[in-house]
Amino acid sequence: MKRILSRRPWKALLLALLVGLVFGVAQLGQPLENAMQVARNKLRSHPASGTIVLVAIDDRSVSEVGNAPWNGSRLASLVRRLNQGGARRIHIDADLRNIGSSQEGAQLEAALAASTADILLPARFSIDPVSGRRSAIEPPARFARHGRIVNSNLLVRWDNAVWEHPYAARVGGRLLPSLSSVLAATEIQEEALFPIDHGIDIRSIPVVSASDVLNDRMSFQQLAGKDVVIARTDFAVDHFRVPGFVPVPGVLFHLVAAETLLARQPVDLGWLVPFALAALLAICLLYGRQRSVTAGILLFGVGSFLAGPILLELNQVHGEVVPALAVILTAALARVVASRRRSYQARGTTNVVTGMPNLQALRQSAELNEGIVVSARVKNYAQITTTLPPQHEKELVEQIVGRLEFGAEGSTIYQADEGVFVWIAGGSLEDEVIQQVEGLQALFRSPIVIATRLIDVAVTFGLDRDSSRPLPQRVSSALVASDDAARHGKRWASFNPASMEDADWAMSLLARLDHAIDNNELWVAYQPKVDCRSGNLVGVEALVRWTHPEKGHLHPDQFIGAAEQGGRIERLTYFVLDSALAAAATVQQHDSCFTMAVNLSVLLLNSDDLVPTVEKLLRKHDVRPELLTLEVTETSTLGSADDQIANLQRLSDIGVQLSIDDYGTGFSTLEYLRRIPASEIKIDRSFIGMLNNSQSDRIMVNSTIQLAHSLGRKVVAEGVESQEILDELKRMRCDIVQGYHTGRPAPLAQLLRRFAPEEAQKAA
Q1: In the CATH scheme, what is the homologous superfamily, with its name and number, of domain 521-763?
Q2: Sign for the pseudo-dihedral over CA of 196, 197, 199, 200
Q3: Strands 52-57 and 227-232
Q4: Of 467, 657, 664, 737, which sits with the fewest C-beta atoms within 10 Å of its C-beta?
Q5: CATH class of this structure's domain 359-495
Q6: What residues does each domain of the chain span?
Q7: pLDDT digits (tens, 9 = 90+) for 353-405
Q8: Cα–Cα distance between 323 and 328 in angstroms, integer?
């Protein structure tokens, strides 16, 4: 599937990150951040703890008792009354440098000295707006020695709002804890700020009028064991703005800050942590392939940064999310713009229905004409699309391509005509591409689900490996090969360009095959079969090879099918059988139990000469029948079933072992297990190759092994390409394995060398 941002999505990512950095560093989004914070505060509004009480010198107190600021005598009366009420701590938020006459000052000093409650007295600093000079304002020593000094500064922003509060501040050369830190018993000794939890309803803080305290118009139970703050709240005192609320007296910010710390010490993530998370989401958004997935990422990201802070702030975790939102929204916008731009540029190079790049795009692409061209043809595509609603065709193609991508290994997949897909396996060896195709065949055994409907997809593959020809011709050749595979019931076929250049070769293939047998151009390679448990070599499979003096090495699929169709399969099979038994006789001089496996076409099962010929060749080479295994290949289903089964039974009766080859594909079913007197089941490589990646294949392979063992039959797994697959088969108690990991097909001389070390050791 093509990427929506196929052209350098990293540029869009850099743009999104740059926009987020600008919002974070320059605080451009602060008004929006504040508005979102106010909305969250209202959503999670909750009351104060009630452990801190404000004794307010309010307008009524000023009217009944006297103008503020109050002198020492009135403050002393308040302190004494609060002690009578059982207050735990008393803070006097007043400038104690000017409290009236010396007699009034003495009364306050005496009240402080006699207080049973802990006394807290304010100290603060001021900064001259012209000179910038900092001055300390501290209580006189005669009062300070009777209490603890705390800082009473507020951090007021340009808009007269208070959002944050200090843990401590330096006044007159010493670090003093803030009033809120002392009231909350936090007392972090550093000049750091913490966010005030304005989700605390400021109206829920207990407030008692100072005149009510002095005139006994209240119950002292309201004060018992509480922290009490005496402060002015009258009209003349400074008021500051609560975010999302009316301006209130400054002392209330100290109390809300203390309530914040009482709940839990806040954690301020700032904007960098959300920014980093947004960067990860932006990567997923820009590099995502499916539009529905990226839309989900966008909704998840925006939703998380809008709703997530509410949950975090319930646990006193705060952060700025506008820079993060800027990153995600910029990435989304860049993706939309790039998609629009690409839609205009891609006209004529994309499939109208699916949006996939077509063969015109392949011709215009910068891909080198190297590697192997692979085509995949969905044989029943027209039948599927006829029964599907038109809007589901794109989903069908997406699921097909999603599976093909496992074999394409990052190469771009192009959609040709209906049901045809092409890609270039750059730099791959043919054997590797064949293994990938076999694995894809295993994937397509599982149906595709479209709108709750299960749809079986039949796919054949074609390969073209001649990079000397123009790419358009190679694409056509690969399509011819896939059509040829479909006609002959194969999973894949490899196109031989020489056959197109030399028509005589194509028309005289069978005659040339006869000539090859007579002139030793055909030879037999032997692939080791290894005991799964011990790792010992127990036998080989004979595989025919053709090395033509002009054409070079020809893959078996290029002539075996023609031999079957042209009536040459009998001669070819007996040639291989004769060579294999001669080799077996040689090997059995070293290992008397060594087995030889030879493929047997179903077409030969109708021959009356099959059993006599096998017996003749066994006697010719003096090989015991039980050491020969004939593998029944399934190029077609059992035709004259009775005659064929009778021939198989006669082979079994003379002692020849029978194996059901390619079990799990085509026509090899439980019917085969029931009717063929086989001692061995050979599981097809398409199942084994996907063993580590497909849960369904693991289940099928394991169940096949258990079924075979319960029927008293051995199991051979072909196509073992890695140690991981071998280990998995060992765990499943497979009997024998073969594949490139345990040994590649090799000439007889190379096979005999495997016995040389053992012979040398015996001689010594």
Answers
A1: EAL domain (3.20.20.450)
A2: negative
A3: parallel
A4: 467
A5: alpha beta
A6: 9-43+271-345, 52-265, 359-495, 521-763
A7: 777 888 777 877 645 567 888 999 998 888 888 888 877 888 888 889 888 88
A8: 9
